[in-house]
């Protein structure tokens, strides 16, 4: 009865019944959890044949960032699912390889965007500074 359209780190976002900032501000329990995974818990060859079970879960999970923290996110395109301002620091084909791909990042004058594409069977890395908090801790 359900179909995965998109997920990040094997979590498909579920729209909460109360806004996340409102739930945080009023300390409402049961609206979201703080256990969003920093990395995919079940990695596989994203550009090859997908596994029979992606082990995707549904949830309203958050990942807390420190104020003014520099954040880097790698958006990995897959062979399964087609393809705010941030800086595009790298892009490539195949699976992202931290050991070799980081050396090709443009950290001097990266392009600033509010939308971008992820190559089919490829990846794109973005960076932004978490300097506009939606709430205070």
Automatic annotation (TrEMBL):
GO terms for molecular function: copper ion binding; oxidoreductase activity. InterPro entries: Cu-oxidase_C, Cu-oxidase_fam, Cupredoxin. Residues 35-136 form the Plastocyanin-like domain. It holds the Pfam family Cu-oxidase_2. Belongs to the multicopper oxidase family. PANTHER family: LACCASE (PTHR11709:SF317), MULTI-COPPER OXIDASE (PTHR11709). This is Plastocyanin-like domain-containing protein.
């Amino acid at each position: 009865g359900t179909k995965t359209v998109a997920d990040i780190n094997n979590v498909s976002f579920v729209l909460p019944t109360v806004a996340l900032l409102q739930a945080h501000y009023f300390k409402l329990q049961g609206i979201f959890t703080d256990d969003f995974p920093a990395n995919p818990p079940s990695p596989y060859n994203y550009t090859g044949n997908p596994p029979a079970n992606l082990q995707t879960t549904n949830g309203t999970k958050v990942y807390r960032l420190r104020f003014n923290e520099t954040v880097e996110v790698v958006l990995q395109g897959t062979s399964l699912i087609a393809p705010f301002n941030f800086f595009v620091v790298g892009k490539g084909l195949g699976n992202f390889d931290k050991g070799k791909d980081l050396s090709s990042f443009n950290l001097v004058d990266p392009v600033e965007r509010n939308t971008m594409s992820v190559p089919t069977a490829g990846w794109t890395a973005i960076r932004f500074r978490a300097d506009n908090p939606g709430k205070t801790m």
